[in-house]
Specification:
2 domains, 6-stranded mixed beta sheet, elongated, single chain, Rossmann fold, 30% strand, 303 residues, Alpha-Beta Plaits, binds adenosine-5'-triphosphate, alpha/beta
């Protein structure tokens, strides 16, 4: 079985409102997959469809080789799920809540719960309602990981966690991956997933706008170059150079985007008197912002 998750032309309408519009993508067994997008992009809708908590308007959802709807009981047994709005009875103590959820799963060794609670520095004796948002999120994370599921589906798992706890979470994701598990996690923020994700998908307005490895996304970064000249900026000469686009002139300063080797730009500049030179790399976060706001290259989404 090569696919942990397979979505084919998945559409979800909420009345006249569109939650998802023809989303197709595959998550491979054993990969950590980041699912990113701005507010309202369709991330939670997708995750709820995976768990059969809501039903698609059209399209197919397969999880661990099973139909999300017909085989929902089996899918739920094999999956660890952290909802975006993890909510449990606040009067319970954290330990009681986890023991109850573990019993529903057919039992989890108490040592395993204690080990995870220790790693997250979670007080199992505290009543849930007395816990801060971040500490409640830890309860949600422990219940998702405790039975060592084949597939973890995590909706904004790092929400409310401080950087130290985030690191503990990332360590657990790494361990799950090394044990051959699959992790599907949503987030708003690239930097949260780029350290652990093998591939990331970016959704916007219910559609896939990019799907690639973190490394390949990074390779799409480019330079912004600004050169000041002693005389008039030689715009025509630079516009003709390989990899130069988006050229603008402001007095004797010229700026442009450079997508290829800087060699020809440096050699062309050397024929003039250069008074200033500035370069900035567009990093993954900038690229991500381009996708968020509607620009970017959508060709990768077809992969
Ligand atoms: N129960 C609902 N009824 C009506 N519209 C809904 C419902 N749930 C989601 N939507 C709409 O579907 C679209 C996708 O929402 P969804 O919650 O899946 O986005 P998201 O990517 O998870 O956003 P966020 O990052 O804000 O959690 C939005 O336009 C949202 O308003």
């Amino acid at each position: 079985m090569a696919a942990a998750i397979e979505l084919i032309d998945l559409t979800k309408m909420y009345g006249a409102r569109r939650g998802l519009a023809g989303l197709s993508m595959t998550v491979r067994v054993g990969e950590v997959f980041g699912f990113l997008g701005p507010n309202g992009a369709g991330k939670t809708t997708t995750i709820r469809l995976l768990l059969d908590l809501i039903r698609p308007t059209s399209g197919t959802v397969r999880v661990l080789g099973r139909a999300a709807r017909r085989d929902a009981i089996e899918v739920h047994r094999r999956v660890g799920y952290l909802p975006g709005d993890f909510a449990v009875d606040g009067r319970q103590r954290a330990g009681e809540c986890l023991a109850f959820l573990a019993a529903l799963r057919g039992g989890v060794p108490a040592d395993r719960i204690r080990e995870l609670a220790d790693r997250f520095d979670l007080d199992l004796r505290a009543r849930i309602k007395s816990l801060s948002k971040g500490n409640r999120q830890k309860v949600g994370l422990v219940q998702a990981f405790m039975h060592d599921p084949e597939l973890l589906i995590l909706d904004e798992p790092t929400s409310g966690l401080d950087p130290l706890v985030q690191q503990t979470f990332l360590d657990l994701v790494g361990e799950a991956k090394r044990a051959g598990r699959t992790v599907f996690m949503s987030s708003h923020i690239m930097s949260e997933v780029e350290a652990v994700a093998d591939r990331v998908a970016i959704v916007r307005d219910g559609r896939l706008v990019a799907l690639d490895t973190v490394a390949d996304l990074r390779d799409r970064s480019f330079l912004r170059v600004a050169i000041g000249f002693a005389g008039p900026a030689p715009a025509a000469e630079f516009a003709a150079l390989p990899g130069v686009t988006d050229l603008a002139v402001d007095g004797s300063t010229m700026s442009f985007r450079l997508d290829s080797s800087p060699d020809s730009v440096v050699k062309a500049a050397a024929r003039h008197t250069v008074t200033s030179l500035r370069t900035e790399t567009q990093d993954l976060e900038d690229l991500f912002h381009t996708f968020y706001t509607g620009g970017g290259d959508t060709a990768a989404a077809d992969r």
